[in-house]
Structure formats: structure tokens, C-alpha cells
């Protein structure tokens, strides 16, 4: 499926993702936070708990692309059949930040989003399993038009924004627990949602404490080439800081 358009890639910035989340309908009791370690207890203690979802920014290295193609060749074409998770195929060039955000907002409890919001409208449309992946993609494309991603958010951030047509070698994906208490990796460039297995006891209440999450992110770091070892960033969706 060809990209419908290209947008300015979002910066990995909790303030930008929080602002966009509120526009879409996230409850103001939650916000995004930078994550500086998944294993250091002292650094983790600065994060408000519990964490409902994680967004990872990582480099698209040759090693990763080979891994992605190999794994996707082993999986069947996804037909939007899993009732436990909402997944969106990326059809907007450089739009991975938006897709990563939607993957979290469309899968958290409805108690954490505002009624009559854009995100609840999206969920109601895509939760019907008779809607195809292609139809879901068109719904997301219409949502992007309505929020005017480039105009409202593309040029925000601390670094100079590239043009929509510029190819970038960094990519956002998300991790969140589904309705079946399984941990999912959600990436619009893959063949479908990736079921990482049942969440651990700790992970059911707090995603960041699930060892499967830690192991999968560490796998991506370990397989990056030397020049990209530090081109990773993490954001967590958790309670708002008072």
C-alpha cells in the first residue's frame, strides 16, 4: 500500500506528544514522560507510576531492516481479526510518531480518554472487525487531515524540522497491554500487531516493569551498529506531574 502523503516527522518530545494527545482526547490526568533507563531503580523512581504504555524511537539500520523483513515473511497477512488490540498500518510517510501515539491512545482504557473525543470516535470505527486494514488506514488518514499534523505540530520541538519529503532513518513504535493481558509491540510498518506473550504479574499493573518489554527494547539496542547505539529514545505514558 503506497503512502497517501508525507508529513514532517514528529520530534521525540514528551510535551509535543502530550499536547497532541490532549487534542485527540487523552484525559488530563495522564501525560508523556522521558524515560532514561528501564533497569536503573533510581532513574525509574523519578517516573510517576503506573506506566500505561511506552513509545520507542530507534534507528532503521540495515540489521534491523533485515530482521523486520525476515520476521514479516514468516507471518500471515493480518486481517484486523484480533479483538484484543487495535493496530494501524502506516500509510502516511514520516507519520510513525502519529501512529505510535494512536497505538497507545486507541488501546488504553476508555476511562483514560474523554467521551465524544476524536480518539473515542476512531476506536468506535475501527473496533468493528469487519472493517479491513485498508479501510482502517483511510480512517487514520482522515483523522490526520482533521488535526492538521504539519500545521499544528510538525515544526514544534527543539531541533529544526526536516521537510515532509525528506527520508528519515529513525522510527517510532509502541508497547502496550491488550485486552487479553498480553503485551503487544505495535508498529505500522510491520505486518500486524506483534504479540509478545502474556504480561507478567508486575506488567499487568505497570507495563514498564514487564521483563518482556525490557528484553525486546534491549534486543533492538544490541542489534544496532556502533554508530547508532545511542540513537534511541523512550517516552512513557503515565500520571500527570502535579
From TrEMBL:
The chemistry this enzyme catalyses reads: Thiol-dependent hydrolysis of ester, thioester, amide, peptide and isopeptide bonds formed by the C-terminal Gly of ubiquitin (a 76-residue protein attached to proteins as an intracellular targeting signal)
Instruction: Kindly give the Gene3D superfamilies that the UniProt entry links to this protein.
Output: Peptidase C12, ubiquitin carboxyl-terminal hydrolase (3.40.532.10)
Extract the InterPro entries matched here.
Papain-like_cys_pep_sf, Peptidase_C12_UCH, Peptidase_C12_UCH_sf
- Locate the site labelled Transition state stabilizer: 90
Q: Which GO terms describe its cellular component?
A: cytoplasm
Statement: the UniProt record of this protein carries the keyword Disulfide bond = no
Kindly give the CDD domains that the UniProt entry links to this protein.
Peptidase_C12_UCH_L1_L3 (cd09616)
Residue ranges of every copy of the UCH catalytic domain listed in the record: 6-239
An example Gene Ontology molecular-function term: cysteine-type deubiquitinase activity
GO biological process assignments: protein deubiquitination; ubiquitin-dependent protein catabolic process
- The organism sits in which domain of life? Eukaryota
Q: Which UniProt keywords apply?
A: Hydrolase, Protease, Thiol protease, Ubl conjugation pathway
Catalytic machinery residues: 96 (nucleophile), 171 (proton donor)
Entry EC no(s): 3.4.19.12
Site (described: Important for enzyme activity): 187
| PANTHER family registered for this protein in UniProt | UBIQUITIN CARBOXYL-TERMINAL HYDROLASE
The similarity comment for this entry is: Belongs to the peptidase C12 family.
Protein name per its UniProtKB record = Ubiquitin carboxyl-terminal hydrolase
Question: Which species expresses this protein natively?
Answer: Candida metapsilosis
